[in-house]
Design brief:
Helix content: 55-70%
Shape: globular
Structural class: alpha/beta
Largest sheet: 5 strands, mixed
Distance between the termini: 61 Å
Strand order of the largest sheet: 3-2-1-4-5
Number of helices: 17
């Protein structure tokens, strides 16, 4: 067996190779990654850090018959906390850790789950979705700011402008604005209208990319407030639900449990872990009221918690309950108990309609 530590760069890599007794027999400072991968076989074991493109390369390494693991750099402290950070040191640390783990069986490397190509496709599209949302929020905030600078403090007016950019273009002509302010708001509204169309196109692409998950989507949209888009966002985050040994592990991964630190008999409960994945938490937060109304039990739980703890904690609690329900549904393939049939059929139509290609959409039904 040979043990490889791979420090990836754009188009090249630094490689440390160790033999069965742990000696570094070779170090490649800058090798073309494609040429290096072509030399691998069943006798090779490779470790690389999680970074952009690491899953793509891991797949190609595994196709050669070699074993490949992707390591979480945040938990791999040998590299993260290194005072002496060089390509050679990082590659050598990876190969040494891989050899030590294989020989002793005591060192457990912090592996990252390798998502399937279908999951990676969905994640890539949802990253674009988040980017468009961020741009929309920035433009809406900019419009409100310009209005305030011109003495217009009515937030409802600003909301009317940004929620319907086409109407907003006509409405701003009736306002007393400086020429620069008028130009700035008009440009922001045009951009918002373009982003709105781009999001519609992107949603159709997300639905088409989500076709391999159709069975799970049809199951999850039985919950009030869970649209096909939210279901796909959840599935893109968790991938294979069976990889989570417990509900708490899933909730921690999705970032809806607080950090807990205990010392000297005193326990401190902190904020949510921001280093976890945030897509599902962000998407589902916007539908909390609908999720709370999805069953009498959740509704009563939400109202009581709002009175005792406030809206902030109640929202996160509803997300935890909902993700727990979705986990059980996927594991047992069980429909939602309080499914509303008319609402469910409406979501199914939306799912089917958005999966059509542009050419199919032009064909009259």
């Amino acid at each position: 067996m040979r043990y490889h530590g791979l420090d990836l760069h754009k188009g090249s890599a630094a490689v440390s190779i160790r033999d069965e007794v742990g000696h570094e027999v070779r170090y490649l400072a800058k090798v073309v990654t494609t040429s290096y991968v072509a030399t691998l076989g069943p006798e090779d074991s490779v470790a690389l850090e999680s970074s952009s493109g690491s899953f793509w390369w891991a797949e190609r390494i595994q196709r050669r018959g070699a074993r490949c693991i992707v390591i979480d750099p945040y938990r791999f402290r040998i590299i993260r906390d290194s005072w002496h950070k060089t390509d050679r040191h990082d590659a050598g640390a990876l190969s040494l850790a891989l050899w030590t783990s294989a020989q002793s069986g005591e060192l457990v490397l912090p592996e990252v789950w390798q998502p399937t190509p279908e999951v990676r496709e969905l994640r890539r599209l949802f990253s674009q979705w988040q980017l468009l949302n961020n741009q929309s929020r920035q433009l809406k905030a900019q419009v409100q700011s310009v209005l305030v600078e011109n003495g217009i403090t009515d937030r409802k007016l600003g909301t009317r402008l940004v929620d319907n950019p086409a109407v907003g273009q006509q409405l701003i002509a009736t306002l007393e604005l400086s020429p620069a302010s008028l130009f700035s708001i008009a440009m922001s509204l045009r951009t918002l209208a373009q982003l709105k169309e781009q999001k519609k196109s992107l949603q159709r692409e997300i639905y088409r990319a989500g076709q391999p998950f159709e069975e799970q989507v049809r199951l999850l949209i039985g919950i009030r407030g869970v649209t096909p888009l939210l279901a796909l966002g959840f599935l893109s985050e968790v991938g294979d639900i069976r990889r989570f040994r417990s509900l708490r592990a899933l909730l921690a991964y999705l970032g809806v449990v607080p950090t807990v630190r205990s010392s000297g008999g005193t326990t401190h409960v902190g904020r949510l872990n921001r280093r976890s994945r945030s897509l599902a938490r962000t998407l589902f937060t916007q539908a909390v009221l609908h999720l709370a109304d999805s069953s009498p039990l959740l509704g009563r739980f939400y109202r009581e918690l709002v009175e005792r703890k406030g809206y902030g904690r109640a929202r996160i609690a509803i997300l935890r309950k909902t993700f727990g329900i979705m986990r059980r549904m996927l594991l047992s393939n069980t429909p939602y108990r309080w499914k509303e049939e008319s609402l469910y059929q409406s979501k199914l139509k939306d799912w089917v309609r958005n999966q059509r290609t542009e050419e199919e959409s032009k064909i009259p039904a």
